Please model this.
Amino acid sequence: MKIYFYLFFVFLNLNAELVLEITESSDNPYRIAIHNFDGQASISNEISAIIKADLQRTGEFSVLSSDDLLTEEVYQEELNYKNYRLLGVDYILKGKINSKDRVNITVSYDIYDSVKEKKIRSSKIYGIPNKTRQLAHYVSDGIYEEITGLKGVSSTKMLYVSEGLVGSAKVYKLMLADADGMNEQTLLKSNSAIISPSWSPDSKEIAYVSFETGLAKVFIQNIATGSREVAVKNKYQISSPAFSPDGKFLSLTLYQDGNAEIYILNLENKNLTRLTNHYSIDTESSWSPDGKKILFTSGRSGSPQLYEIDLLKFNTKPKRLTFDGSYNAKASYLPSNEGIVFVQRNEGEFKIALKYFNENFSRPLTESRLDESPSISPNGNVIIYAIKEDKVGLLAGVTLSGAKFRLPSSSGEVREPSWSGYLR
Amino acid sequence: MYIQSNNRNIFYVSFLMFAVSCSTTNNTEESVYNSTVSSVEVSVAEDSIVSYDEKPITTNAVVYFDFDKFTLSTKSIQTLKSVVRAMNDNTDMVITVSGHADERGTREYNLALGQRRGDAVKDYLLLNGINNNRVTVKSFGEEYPLVTGSNDESWSKNRRAEIN
Amino acid sequence: MQINTNYTIASILSFLIHASLILFLVGYFYSEKKARPILNNPIEVSLIFEQDAKISSIKNTIEKPVAQKSYSEIKIVSSKITASKINQSKEFEPVINVIPEISKPISEEKNYSNNEQINDADKFSLMIIDTIEDAWLKPKNIQDGLVCDLRIQINKNGRIINVSLLRSSGNIRFDNSAIKAVKRVETFNFFSKMDTKIYQSNFKNIMLTFNPL
Model:
């Protein structure tokens, strides 16, 4: 029995899950004190640790745990709010885990405001025993939503591509993981390259480009069933898929006209509508949150720049959006539709930049040299992207409030992250 | 009357205390959402990325490009001239031009760039009398670099079009 | 004839609705950046809620609609943000140093001298602004030109007993930063120096405008 247990434990470690690393925190976080949850100690510790990491990764919180607190308040009914204020604590979290019933785990938690001196939220979450991580993420989201008023993204997921070696052969995998990089699952395993993973708006399907047929082709795959189909069946290269916000269309880059042009595929009747008509490269299409405009990268001015087409009148010339820098590409809209996030090359270095529509300059958000593939969280506050460091590809995150974190991989290179929609 | 109004006051007060306290604490309940995930495994077909089987004689030629450019240099043209000669000498020969890019910049743009590079080679060959049917262009963007490394030297070796 | 009149009325109404819609969209009805001077004679304040008695607070819940417009307005002009604007930098972190021209008059006020020419209410208003400015960190990576209004209730000891968002900037992080600043200040200690009369008529209920110029 001991041997089996040992092997099982080793096997778990070999699953090589991504591990989180916070490298920089924001400058004006909410300070929350998290008490250990009542209930089974092992589950309680796990849940507390996950909540702490989730809240730190939002860039809006700094977390004090029980060890940091001067007094252990657990057994007192009435909290000593003044003590908490002296410690600089804004909010207090207390909770209970009920795991007596083998079929369910129930987590209940209360949030207290140290300034208002009262309880501001009382919540209950019903979960199942082997999915405690998810329960913890729901708690984190509840805390985030109550205090900031914004929707939380701790319970969302991400897609990314990993590249590794098995023997001397390269293996490419399309991975699905939780927003903290844990709980990795392989959606596609292939010995040819996979690029441009993207989510359908209901987060149930994915689209990606695979080179398995020898040419770049776009596939749409159902996450639950694994069933997949080629988006457009012809003998030409197709890439850069992006679902429309209503899920009815897929924008694509087709190469059948002799150069890269953007088309829109009607997913129901399979009709293709051409959007761009220019001899230069037009690719990397992305939809506005209201589905009325498409952003794309075009080389028509001599270098890659960002352009926007209004779908309600797409016969007009695309509007150019970026004028600074010699390379602006891979853009996507902020969910609030107030601006865009994209890759910008400045002085030879590639960074992730943010530009608001009502401003005429872009703001660099990241600091390394070879940043690419930014993907914005559904609440518009966190951006994950790929970096290259010491020849290894890693995923990193930056929040609008200035916090930074890494998701270092223990299994080869990871890249091209794509953030899901809300799953709660 | 007096008792009635008292009761009423108490009712109002307690209702409002209840209402006030309820309105200041947010009570929620939810269940965790569960979903299944399936995994798919794909093996590449035999004649995929680069196939050497079909052609009687292979010409492995490579031409290189500048960053973000798909124009042919004089050196490239020299290389292509010999390709033209080889193809004229052997009229059965069919070639695949695969375009590549270095790792900098975005993957999709690089895929399109690789395509332009491949097309630049094809255009030259067609201009020199080679039949359209004999030349196929594919792009692999930055996905299959020849050399790993994040420096100018490695990058310059990856910005290429391969002719097979 | 009757039908014609109906048509006329309908078309006039339609014209009015469309006209006002267009004007609204054009922005005719929206007035931006009105200067809000610090009031020398603040608007008369009606009875305010204090959390001493629970029942009285409940009573006041009913009275809420009445108290709508009775608060003094105090403008928070973040001189920190003004300084960074002048530098024209793309650095959006608030600058700690206050620019000299603006800081001079405030430092004069800080002497808290019994200068009769300076209205006490104004003096305290500036102290409130000072305290809150020190606590306010404008969030990073948000656009310029955002403004929000908060309403705060203060008890006679200077303790802020309620904060509410009166007008949102449209950006939740910006609004949150203002609320956070007020909550962290928590108490204006200098209220103990305040005359009860001044407190009663000016500072029970104030509105703060957060407007980085």
Remarks:
- Chain C has a mean pLDDT of 66.
- Residues 140 and 163 of chain C are 23 Å apart (CA to CA).
- Chain C touches chain A through 21 residues (CB under 8 Å).
